[in-house]
UniProtKB/TrEMBL annotation:
Residues 276-360 form the Transposase IS116/IS110/IS902 C-terminal domain. This is Transposase IS116/IS110/IS902 family protein. The lineage of its organism: Bacteria, Bacillati, Actinomycetota, Actinomycetes, Micrococcales. Pfam families: DEDD_Tnp_IS110, Transposase_20. Transmembrane segments: none annotated.
Length: 409
């Protein structure tokens, strides 16, 4: 076997090639390009030709690298190499085994990665053989999720600004990403300008936003905008108004892009053969379903058991035991995209599944907090999904929760 440690950077790769005895065969710096990849293949071909092939078997090539994404990694997998994406935190701990001086270099990191895949690859996860369809879906769902996180950040900044000079808007409009409050801020960003809006103007803004009970809602908004309130100096209000209008414009753009990406995600998800199974799960809709599918992938051999899938999702707890002390803790080092999706999934399932609600209520009755109970529910849901995918059967409420009032440990 040949073992390659690949320490990647934006423009180059430092590699070290070892044999199965740990002998360094070659180390080099290769450009991140077609030329660099060709040189890597040439090195592999050279040392494969020099090896003693028993029964004509070509040596297996195993690569350790600190990422699972990118064209370079895709080409390595496509070339038939076994590629392991080593977590950078794990690589840093392995580096401390070789030196306590805290010295670091790209060539040294390549050596560490080669040692990792030569000696301990069984403790690391090989890059899954997901289909191109689910890989493309993962790109879209992660971009969609990142835009939502960006919108939340801008919403919080907008709320902070409004609390400084125009707090009544925070009281009247519960959702600061709604098109009504965003249009109002664009047209009248200061309390004085907003108070001068006529009732028909406010009604038209609410109507364009699709609000119901327009007459009552218009009266509530107009009365709030014209009510006496503490005010900032005019110049300060004008500055805050500019900031609020800027944030409103950013949120409006993000709303449009999020909606556009949702269409792409829904279309891609609907074409996947596992879409019906995921859609049958309680709480998984047209947004969460594609996220969960994309983060887990569709390699049928990736998760050998429900426990392995739960561990990857980060929903299963970890145990720390030393002497007489034993503590069970939540996993905090995990895939943040999948953790966010499973958390939302568990929360949505409370209204979609009587069994999930009974399980959650039983946990809460044992004085378990909301977040911990939701995490345990997510853990159960991930296990149920694993069974459905393995057997290619849709969700069944009675089979999923045969004893809903007795949650398993």
């Amino acid at each position: 076997m040949l073992f390659i440690g690949d320490d990647w950077a934006e423009g180059h790769h430092d590699i070290e090639v070892q044999d199965d005895q740990g002998t360094r065969l070659v180390k080099a710096r290769l450009p991140d390009s077609v030329e660099g990849l060709a040189r890597l293949h040439a090195v592999v071909a050279e040392y494969s030709a020099l090896a003693d092939h028993e029964d004509g078997v070509v040596p297996e090539v195993v690569v350790g690298i600190e990422t699972e994404r990118g064209a370079w990694v895709h080409q390595l997998v496509a070339s038939g190499y076994r590629v392991y994406a080593v977590n950078p935190m794990s690589a840093a701990r392995y580096r401390e085994r070789h030196s306590t001086s805290r010295a670091k270099s790209d060539a040294g990191d390549a050596h560490v990665l080669a040692e990792v895949v030569r000696l301990d690859r069984q403790h690391h996860r090989e890059i899954a053989g997901d289909s191109e369809q689910v890989t493309a879906l993962k790109v879209a769902t992660r971009a969609h999720q990142s835009l939502i996180w960006d919108r939340t950040r801008h919403q919080l900044r907008l709320r902070s600004a409004l609390m400084e000079y125009f707090p009544v808007l925070v009281t009247v409009f519960a959702d600061l990403t709604g098109s009504d409050v965003l249009e109002l801020l664009t047209r009248a960003g200061t309390p004085q300008q907003a108070a001068s809006l006529t009732r028909p103007q406010v009604r038209a803004i609410l109507k364009r936003a699709g609000r119901r009970n327009l007459d009552h809602r218009t009266s509530v908004v107009v009365d709030a905008l014209r009510a006496p309130a503490l005010r900032q100096p005019p110049a300060v209000e004008a500055a805050y108004g500019t900031v609020a209008a800027t944030q409103a414009a950013l949120i409006t753009t993000l709303n449009a892009q999020i909606s556009e990406l949702e269409g792409v995600i829904t279309e891609g998800f609907g074409r996947h053969p596992d879409a019906d199974i995921l859609s049958s799960q309680p709480g998984l809709g047209p947004v969460l379903g594609p996220r969960v599918l994309a983060e887990f992938g569709d390699d049928p051999d990736r998760f050998t058991s429900a426990k392995a899938r739960k561990n990857y999702a980060g929903t299963s707890p970890i145990t720390r035991a030393s002497g007489k002390r034993r503590t069970v803790l939540a996993r905090h080092v995990r895939n943040k995209h999948l953790a966010d999706a499973t958390g939302s999934w568990a929360f949505s399932a409370l209204n979609a599944s009587p069994g999930a609600r009974a399980y959650y209520d039983t946990l809460r009755a044992r004085d378990i907090g909301h977040q911990a109970a939701k995490r345990q529910l997510a853990n159960r849901l991930v296990g149920i999904l694993h069974g459905c995918l393995k057997t290619h059967t849709p969700y069944d409420e009675t089979r999923a929760w045969p004893t809903a009032t007795h949650p398993a440990a």
